[in-house]
Design goal:
alpha/beta, two-stranded antiparallel sheet, 14 strands, 31% helix
Length: 434
């Protein structure tokens, strides 16, 4: 099967990363939580959960928009856009990259979001119902529309190349990173800010997912609620946050003397064409997606040393994903883990933050664990790196992201030559948390 991949496409290097999550407000804090198995799930404080089925989530409680943007600008952004701007600024700082007028039209932005500005929508509907239509904010539309996170990053950084938004449910963040890789490979940009962002916490969001019986109701044990592949899993735990990666062409990175964490080397997009929420019974969309992404990266199954699973902690997904992985590798797959056990499910941002996890796993020779794995499920019988991080020098990894509507996205990541590899920790945003 042809993937349309040229013989030697330009390598898309990851030279900087930024993270906003409930388990860490920057890359190093996030990674420390992953390898230590420190959950970011807690009781929700941002909304009234009194009558909701699920009262827990990955809430980013220490985030201060003023650390990243002027207060008057922050007030004109929905929370999902604030997260995106923060992650983008951290990523640019980490990459030691300034967007100049000379490079502006060669610098792109591709962001994913599943829901967009839902907090603004809910707030302004309440305002209209309580106080009348004349009291609705004139900023309602530019705050709620999904493309505004990418737009705000463009306006604040001066990036003037391709500026697009991907909405493919929980595959959005991964699709955004894959699209950014293609812009580099096709020579349409030298630098792309790529990632995902989500701020989904409203009563209607929790109620909607709860009505679909997809959320965990282990409300009395928040930190133990997200338990992918465990026999006692009862649903996913919703989370908020953002992740942005700086992708650069190898030529551009070398020209400015940058070092990189690793490379985004392959991607695939498939559809199940089966059901609005459930995985297709034949599993072919997911199986072919993994096969295609690995081939697109110029790898073989034997090259893949780690799989970051979609691993949502729902009964159907975890069983299906485990069985599909087992089929593809004919019963002998590499280690698999779900970092959602720590972060919860960040919806449209999940694929992006899991891309960060894969890049760091390769760069630092450590596989993050699946925490809360206590009761083995006979239908989920792979090596899930249970509960404790594992030292492992790997050269390639893949990340699975699957969304409602049958959206499947798989990314492949590789190591890079030692002379180009970055070994220093991520640079911390000045004054963060001070």
């Amino acid at each position: 099967m042809s993937t349309g991949r040229s013989a030697n496409p330009p390598r898309a290097l990851v030279t900087g990363m930024g993270v906003v999550s409930s388990c860490g407000l920057d890359v190093e804090a996030f990674w420390d939580s992953l390898v230590r198995g420190r959950s970011g799930i807690s009781k929700l404080e941002c909304i009234d959960t009194t009558d909701l089925r699920s009262t827990i989530g990955g809430e980013v409680k220490e985030f201060r928009p003023g650390d990243f943007v002027e207060s008057h600008e922050a007030k004109r952004m929905d929370r999902f856009a604030q997260f995106a701007v923060a992650a983008a600024r951290m990523a640019l700082h980490d990459a030691d990259l300034t967007i100049t007028s000379n490079g502006a039209f060669r610098t792109g932005i591709v962001l994913g979001t599943g829901i967009g500005g839902i907090q603004t929508i809910v707030e302004q509907i309440r305002t209209m119902n309580d106080r009348g239509p004349r009291r609705v904010s004139p900023y309602t539309i530019p705050m709620m529309i999904g493309n505004m996170a990418a737009g705000q990053i463009s306006m604040l950084t001066g990036a003037r190349g391709p500026c697009t938004t991907v909405v493919t449910a929980c595959a959005s963040g991964a699709d955004a990173v894959g699209d950014a890789m293609r812009l580099i490979q096709w020579g349409e940009a030298d630098v792309v800010l790529a990632g995902g962002t989500e701020a989904p916490f409203t009563r209607v969001s929790i109620a909607g997912f709860g009505a679909a019986h997809t959320l965990s109701t282990r409300n009395d044990e928040p930190a133990r609620a997200s338990r992918p592949f465990d026999a006692q899993r009862d649903g996913f735990v919703m989370s908020e946050g953002a992740a942005v990666l700086i992708l650069e062409s190898e030529e551009h990175a070398l020209r400015r003397g940058a070092r990189a964490y690793g490379a985004v080397a392959g991607r695939s997009q498939t559809a199940d064409a089966a059901h609005i929420t459930a995985p297709a019974p034949d599993g072919l969309g997911r199986l072919e997606g993994m096969r295609m992404a690995i081939a697109d990266a110029g790898l073989t199954l034997a090259d893949v040393g780690y799989i970051n699973a979609h691993g949502t902690s729902t009964p159907a997904n975890d069983k299906d994903e485990s069985q599909v992985i087992k089929r593809l590798w004919e019963g002998n797959p590499p280690p698999v883990s779900s970092t959602k056990s720590v972060t919860g499910h960040m919806l449209g941002a999940a694929g992006a933050i899991e891309a960060v996890a894969c890049i760091l796993a390769i760069n630092r020779g450590t596989l993050p664990p699946t925490i809360n794995y206590e009761y083995p499920d006979p239908e989920c019988d792979l090596d899930y790196v249970p509960n404790v991080a594992r030292a492992a020098m790997i050269r390639a990894a893949i990340s699975n992201s699957f969304g409602f509507g049958g959206q499947n996205s798989v990314l492949a990541f590789t190591d890079i030559p030692e002379e180009m590899r970055r070994t220093a920790p991520a640079r911390r945003w000045p004054g963060l948390g001070a």
